[in-house]
Amino acid sequence: MTDALISSTYSQALEVIASVEPRIAAATRAELADQRSSLKLIASENYASPAVLLTMGTWFSDKYAEGTVGHRFYAGCQNVDTVESLAAEHARELFGAEYAYVQPHSGIDANLVAFWSILAHRVEGPWLEKAAAKNVNDLTAEDWETLRKELGNQRLLGMSLNAGGHLTHGFRPNISGKMFHQQQYGTDPETGLLDYAAVAAKAREFKPLVLVAGYSAYPRRVNFAKMREIADEVGATLMVDMAHFAGLVAGKVFTGEENPVPYAHVVTSTTHKSLRGPRGGLVLATEEYAPSVDRGCPMVLGGPLSHVMAAKAVAFAEARRPEFATYAQDVADNAQSLATGFLSRGAKLVTGGTDNHLVLLDVSGYGLTGRQAESALLDAGVVTNRNSVPADPNGAWYTSGIRFGTPALTTRGFGADEFDKVAELVVDVLRNTTPGTTKAGGTSKASYVLADGVADRTKAASAEMLDKHPLYPGLVLS
Ligand code: DSN
Questions:
Q1: Does the residue 87 lie in any domain?
Q2: Which residue from 192, 248, 244, 240 is spatially nearest to 213, judged by alpha carbons?
């Protein structure tokens, strides 16, 4: 697409929107300006291509299509069938998966589909075959009673939130921590690294039905062959949530035992993080689990978002191109550079570094909570998110960490030297931020004071780099 075409397409689209609700058009323009002028370092965010974004803005949004390809609860789904089949085909090819389900609306939805499918597939009962055979309406009252009892007694072992796991991996305040008896594995208290022997010991004792691997704030790679060995030993299903690192799998940075697809029974993902697609979810599975995954809608999900499935197909097609592999390698190399930049300036990193796309900086050494650091950085135009560190004394609200990710700025074209500069700017802000005081005169965990001039000098230095790597170059709104 030419620059002129993209510019006129978006300019005209905004005019149409403004004719109905000008404040939404204005907010959309403001969002582009904000994203263009800030250092986006949120590890779970990226910038989708104009092709992906445009695909979401069509009349596919208007179509209901509960069910599966060729088996819908609504008439007139032939074009949605085309879209869903193509998205699933691209996903299977991209990841070398036996089966792909592209309907989940988000990562949490994908995980719910996975939990359902594992329960449906694994939990013994007369209802099982019927459910998998898609005649769930034949279940008797007695079948449902068995199902309720059996489902309520299953166990799940996942990585704790503090160690970098996700809240859907059995964290108590999440439904995953309530629908299963759950236990969590952590990381080695000294190194912050995953201790496979400790995971195995816990699994032997707890005997989970589901072993969940994957993370949203663990800055290291995982050996999925080892996780599968543990799952097999205790008879668990291995479910891997690769939401954060799917782009590194697609781009073949994570290969062999670091690629979850050949080892996990069920793999879940989002499509908008390192994978750089539209906001949404994805489930990959072995043939064995496919029939129960296929029942995600209407068992767990509302009707599929056809416009987003179409955008997933476009994004997967993009990720199958050779340049995506280059991008993925750059994401990992840039994270190395960012981590090295922090370490060389005396910062403390969880696990002492990274070998994926994210870096977790412990800000307690600066006398700050994660919340204070996040706010001070935002004042300086650096967009991050606060995050717990292992055994965090400040809990999940204030936290002691800041999570940084390289996927978004790598999309803009930032290289290793620029990520080193980013580390310099971040450290400068943190060194020049002090905690505020509470009304009672104590040290606040929320308020902070950023020294005069620091925000301006950070923004000026960032602007030099951002101007060199414009977001959506050529897109000029009239
Ligand atoms: N919100 C995502 C993240 O930031 O990692 C996970 O749900």
A1: yes
A2: 240
The tokens describing 223, both together, are 């050996």
Q: What is the pLDDT of residue 126?
A: 46
The rounded distance, in Å, linking the Cα atoms of 254 and 329 is: 10
Separation between Cα atoms, residue 213 and residue 239, nearest integer Å: 6
- Position in ligand 1 atom list of the atom nearest CA 244: 5
Positions in the chain short of pLDDT 50? 126, 133-134
Our answer on whether the CB atom of 146 is closer than 6 Å to any ligand 1 atom is no
Is 424 strand, coil or helix? helix
Do 171 and 309 lie in one domain? The reply is yes
Cβ 394 under 6 angstroms from ligand 1: no
Is-contact 276 318, C-beta < 8 A?
A: yes
**Can you give the pLDDT at residue 129?**
59
Q: Are residues 311 and 337 in the same domain?
A: no
- The answer, yes or no, to whether any atom of ligand 1 lies below 6 A from the CB of 387, is no
Tell the residue nearest (CA) to atom 2 of ligand 1: 44
CATH code (residue 334): 3.90.1150.10
DSSP string, 202-256: HHHHH--SEEEEE-SS--S---HHHHHHHHHHHTPEEEEE-TTTHHHHHTTSS-G
Report which protein residue has its CA nearest ligand 1's atom 1: 44
Closest C-alpha residue for ligand 1 atom 4: 44
Residues 221 and 286 in one domain: yes
Q: Indicate whether 287 and 422 sit together in one domain.
A: no
- The reply to whether 84 falls in a domain is yes
Name the DSSP class of 451: P
Distance 167 CA to ligand 1 centre (A): 9
Return the residue whose CA atom lies nearest to atom 3 of ligand 1: 44
CA 166 – ligand 1 centroid, Å: 8
Q: Is the CB of 274 under 6 A from ligand 1?
A: no
Residue in this structure with the two tokens 């069910």, named with its chain if needed: 67
341: containing domain: 323-468
What is d(CA 353, CA 333) in angstroms, rounded to the nearest whole number?
12
Find out whether 267 and 227 touch, Cβ atoms under 8 Å: no
Q: Whole-angstrom Cα distance, residue 269 to residue 283? A: 6
Q: Render pLDDT for 23-41 as a digit per residue (tens, 0 to 9).
A: 999 999 999 999 999 999 9
Asked if residue 51 belongs to a domain, the reply is: no
Domain count, the chain: 2
Cis peptide before 393 (omega within 30 of 0): no
| Torsional sign, CA 289, 294, 298, 304 | positive
Residue 41 lies in a domain: no
Q: Residue 195 is part of a domain; what is its CATH number?
A: 3.40.640.10
Separation of alpha carbons 421 and 413, rounded Å: 14
322: number of Cβ within 10 Å: 8
The pTM of this model reads 0.95
